[in-house]
């Protein structure tokens, strides 16, 4: 018995774990068994593609580890590029002569590779990847369930639309009642800060910025902690990020196309029309809501059909389940409606808080239970595997996140006293639809290249790099997680749309210029602050994520530099949209994305992965110069305070970077968790430090300090932190060796703001 045991341990078959045994059972063909070689591991090498197996070899892991095999070999079924066998046929046995742990087993084609090799060894025909019963892509049953689900959804939508149209005809006074309720809620507030939100001026978007930054003082630490937990503990598989996030980033181009810019159009026209025509303002938002629901159903139908009928037969069959899932994650079609209503009402405090909850908290927290459940499910189903289950959990988590965002948005608008019922009536006509889609369509077409080029980035990585799912995961870490700190501020810049639209439509030219000047000033300051922080702490953060992400380290600075140009580029977009110049926006976006595509073609072949970030940064510079030249010549002349916008902001960046780089160089905690907690503290302190240094450097004039004080009094969320930020800025300004002069535009802008208030309140 002992001899038999020793023979078993030393035999080529060795010991096989239960998961691998289950995979062998799935992959087997009659007359062929599997065995695993035991022996010396050889250096990693790339696999040599075998076209007869009909596998997308570009999706294979970068390194296969051969095992030295000295047994009998009839045929080599698969080998490395260096000639080392990975799968061999030994009579009626397929011997696996490679290590099967790690990324190899997470590869979605691994099970099918075993099956194809077994069929090859037996001389039997092999089904396609999609036709193999154990394939993880949609099959005949999925097609039947999809048809039933889509039919039920379209039926419910049609019945709801008909009922809303009948109610809309029966309530012609709905708009007047709606705005009376909104105005009554604002006037009836017993807090002075709420009443000030009805007054024009830069204090409104500035209060939104203070609310945002106050939340960031503690939310950034939470964000880093979530990212650390996600990337190192909860979802440590770059392949899973490559499966779901690359699908999401690629197909968001479809979502943008079908949305037709309806959300931006609703914000713009609601802000304009509520002064002159309340009925049309309400109709604008009604059209946006119903259009959102309808176009989402169209997406579900088309993407689902693509996923269950056509995609499984192609080279990218492994993405079929995630394409279908992407369509269904958009079914809570109105999850952005609450935030857009707050933007249209210019309640930037609520808008910014909702954006943080949606994009920086729920977007990452909500998927966690789904990811953990998906990993457990995948681990117990070898047909799919743990990485596939994690990717599936990420997609389901996006659906859960959208549902929760919808609920939070509903609570927010009800808190503001907005009646929800009238928003769902159908009182718009074809004229409103044409107006909304004509404006929004141009914005959508102009924005489409952004999402299209995101898809191109993914395609370039897929086509040019081995182990592309892992590299897509690294790209997602850098662009979708690490530099997300820049995108905490997007709602501040988006707030320029409603403010500029309201001022421009009322012919308040000086007020428009003043808004632009202040948005440029604070936008440049905040972006420089974030850049300096991430540049200082980024290496420590990526190191704390674990060795599987180490390949991201050389690209940190390249990923960060484009953020320095976000502020002028985003503000230019809002100016063109807010002044009703979607044609200019379309031209500017065409220049940016055309330049970016050309730079991809030039830089990526030479610099590979680094070329993607280099092309992005250079294209942003080109867009900023071109866009502001057009704005200056055709809309309003650009007037900015150079020192306050550039010089003082740069000084803040230098001080902030030097401080935190020195701290994390001299003191590095022993555990990864302690590093992440330290980064959270640094992030929060940077905001207070930044405002102090900004004031000390002469970045704040007398009017700016007054606006900051007024904005702090308007903050309804975390008001104590908002006031503390303003006190830091005021202290720095008092200690400053000099203070800049008040912008010449200020007096004229304040006069026009008063005139705009009088017109609005008269209505």
Index terms:
763 residues; mainly alpha; 30 helices; 71% helix
Mind explaining what this structure looks like?
- A hairpin with a 2-residue loop joins strand 3 and strand 4 (93-96).
- The protein has a four-stranded mixed sheet, with helices on one face.
- By secondary structure, the chain is mainly α.
- It starts with a helix and ends with a helix.
- Helix content is 71%, strand content 2%.
- Helix 17 runs parallel beside helix 24 (582-607).
- The chain has helices spanning 2-10, 18-27, 103-106, 110-122, 140-170, 174-187, 192-196, 203-234, 238-259, 262-276, 278-310, 320-329, 337-344, 348-365, 367-380, 386-415, 430-464, 468-482, 484-487, 490-505, 509-545, 556-560, 566-578, 582-607, 609-634, 642-666, 672-696, 702-714, 719-735, 745-762, and strands spanning 33-36, 75-79, 85-90, 93-96.
- 54% of the residues are buried.
- The protein has 30 helices and four strands.
- It is globular, with a radius of gyration of 29 Å.
Number of helices: 30
Shape: globular
- The structural class is mainly alpha
Strand content: under 5%
Extended strand count: 4
Strand order of the largest sheet: 1-4-3-2
Percent range for helical residues? over 70%
| Overall pLDDT score | 84
What is the C-alpha radius of gyration, as a whole number of Å? 29 Å
Biggest sheet, in brief? Answer: 4 strands, mixed
Unreliable segments (pLDDT under 50, ≥5 consecutive)? 1-14
Question: Ends: how far apart?
Answer: 97 Å
């Amino acid at each position: 018995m002992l001899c038999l045991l020793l023979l078993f341990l030393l035999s080529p078959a060795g010991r096989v774990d239960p998961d691998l045994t289950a995979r062998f059972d799935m992959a087997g063909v009659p007359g062929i068994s599997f065995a695993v070689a035991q022996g010396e591991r050889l250096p990693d090498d790339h696999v040599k593609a075998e076209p007869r197996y009909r596998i997308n070899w570009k999706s294979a892991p970068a390194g296969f580890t051969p095992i030295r095999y000295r047994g009998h070999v009839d045929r080599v079924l698969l080998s490395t590029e260096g000639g080392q066998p990975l799968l061999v046929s030994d009579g009626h046995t397929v011997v696996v002569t490679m290590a099967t742990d790690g990324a190899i087993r997470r590869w979605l084609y691994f099970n099918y590779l075993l099956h194809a090799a077994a069929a090859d060894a037996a001389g039997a025909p092999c089904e396609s990847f999609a036709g193999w019963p154990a394939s993880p892509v949609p099959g005949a049953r999925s097609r039947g369930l999809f048809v039933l689900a889509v039919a039920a959804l379209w039926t419910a939508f049609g019945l709801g639309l008909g009922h809303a149209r009948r109610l809309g005809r029966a309530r012609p006074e709905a708009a007047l009642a709606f705005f009376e309720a909104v105005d009554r809620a604002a006037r009836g507030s017993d807090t002075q800060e709420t009443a000030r939100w009805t007054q024009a001026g830069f204090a409104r978007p500035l209060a939104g910025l203070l609310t945002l930054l106050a939340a960031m003082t503690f939310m950034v630490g939470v964000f880093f902690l979530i990212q650390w937990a996600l990337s190192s503990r909860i979802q440590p598989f770059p392949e899973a990020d490559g499966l779901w996030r690359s699908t999401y980033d690629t197909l968001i181009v479809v979502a943008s196309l079908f949305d037709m810019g309806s959300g931006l159009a609703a914000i713009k026209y609601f802000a304009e029309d509520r002064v002159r025509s309340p009925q049309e303002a309400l109709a604008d938002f009604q059209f946006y809501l119903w259009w959102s629901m309808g176009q989402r159903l169209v997406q579900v139908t088309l993407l689902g059909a693509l996923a269950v009928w056509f995609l499984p037969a192609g080279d990218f069959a492994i993405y079929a389940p995630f394409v279908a899932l992407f369509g269904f994650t958009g079914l809570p079609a109105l999850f952005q409606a609450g935030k857009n209503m707050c933007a249209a009402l210019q309640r930037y405090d609520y808008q910014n808080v909702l954006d943080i909850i949606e994009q920086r908290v729920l977007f990452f927290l909500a998927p966690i239970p789904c990811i953990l459940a998906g990993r457990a499910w995948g681990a117990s189903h070898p047909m799919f595997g743990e990485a596939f289950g994690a990717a599936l959990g990420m997609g389901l988590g996006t659906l859960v996140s959208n549902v929760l965002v919808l609920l939070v948005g509903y609570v927010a608008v009800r808190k503001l006293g907005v009646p929800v019922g009238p928003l769902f009536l159908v009182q718009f006509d074809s004229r409103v639809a044409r107006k909304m889609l004509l404006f929004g369509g141009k914005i959508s077409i102009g924005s489409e290249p952004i999402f299209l080029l995101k898809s191109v980035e993914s395609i370039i990585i897929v086509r040019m790099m081995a182990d592309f799912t892992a590299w897509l995961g690294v790209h997602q870490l850098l662009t979708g997680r690490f530099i997300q700190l820049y995108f905490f501020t997007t709602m501040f810049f988006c707030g320029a749309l409603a403010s500029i639209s309201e001022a421009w439509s009322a012919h308040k030219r000086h007020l428009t210029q003043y808004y632009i000047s202040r948005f440029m000033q604070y936008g440049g300051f905040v972006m420089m602050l974030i850049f300096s922080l991430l540049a200082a702490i980024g290496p420590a953060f990526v190191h704390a994520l674990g060795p599987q992400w180490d390949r991201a380290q050389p690209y940190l600075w390249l990923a960060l530099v484009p953020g320095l140009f976000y502020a002028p580029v985003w503000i230019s977009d809002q100016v063109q949209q807010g002044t009703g110049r979607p044609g200019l926006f379309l031209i500017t976006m065409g220049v940016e994305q055309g330049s970016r595509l050309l730079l991809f073609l030039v830089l990526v072949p030479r610099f590979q992965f680094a070329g993607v970030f280099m092309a992005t940064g250079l294209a942003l510079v080109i867009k900023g110069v071109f866009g502001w030249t057009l704005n200056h010549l055709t809309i309003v002349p650009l007037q900015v305070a150079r020192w306050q916008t550039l010089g003082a902001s740069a000084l803040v960046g230098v001080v902030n970077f030097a401080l935190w780089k020195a701290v994390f160089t001299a003191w590095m905690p022993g555990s990864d968790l302690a590093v992440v907690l330290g980064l959270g503290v640094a992030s929060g302190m940077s905001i207070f430090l930044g405002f102090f240094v900004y004031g000390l450097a002469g970045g704040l004039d007398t009017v700016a300090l007054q606006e900051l004080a007024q904005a702090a009094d308007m903050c309804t969320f975390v008001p104590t932190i908002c006031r503390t930020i303003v006190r830091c800025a005021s202290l720095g300004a008092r200690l400053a060796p000099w203070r800049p002069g008040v912008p010449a535009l200020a007096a004229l802008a304040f006069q026009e703001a008063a005139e705009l208030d009088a017109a609005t309140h008269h209505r």
